[in-house]
Amino acid sequence: MAYSLVLLRHGQSVWNLENVFTGWTDVELSERGIEEARGAGVTMRDAGVAPDFVHTSVLRRAIDTGSLALAEMGRGWIPMRKHWRLNERHYGALQGQNKKSVAEEAGAEQVKIWRRSYEVAPPPLESGDPRHAVNDARYAWMAPDAIPASESLADVLGRVLPYWHDRIVPDLRDDRQVLVAAHGNSLRALVKHLDAIPDDEIASVNIPTGLPLLYRLDADLRPIESEYLGDPAAAAAAAAAVASEAG
Asked: What one-character-per-residue DSSP string does 149-208 give?
């Protein structure tokens, strides 16, 4: 038996368009992002993908991507499960800042470490910063010290894995097709786990927006195969564009 899992990074957001660190800031899709989300739905439909459940974050760019894609598949009725554990990596004090401007100030190598390293987190937000998630109603139920002020990719993996094991795996084990509509770094963390990517190699993994990544998993939920649906050249070009965002 092979289990079907599709990972979909949200379409381009308005801050992706402006090349700004987003993290937990709740921004909407750009016009291009809306079209990417719809296009992802068409691509999945044409490939015969028919998800039974969609898991997403509590950020609207991911929620809207999932909804738009499902609408194109005629499956807007399937259950959508939202959880903060699938949120984007928290970029701390970098949130809201232009990536190239930060690179000019701090150096391109430092920004690369902040963006792509496994264990290094960006500078944290101060507790009194209005951008801090303690001020956001969607996290009001959480203990304040459980809400991150910055995260490394290792931190993201640490919060994604419990959700993977407790929520997504049971759906797969029930012989359901699962779509995860989330973010570049929450998906990088999941890809690291699925593909057993070493810590020092994860920096080179880039997830492009709006391109469905299909996994076929064996009985132990290890990959049999994985592929981006659609044009492989377009997927490679989109991943390279993500890698070059900070200049």
From this structure: SS--HHHHHHHHHHHIIIIIHHHHHTT--EEEEE-HHHHHHHHHHHHT--GGGGGG----
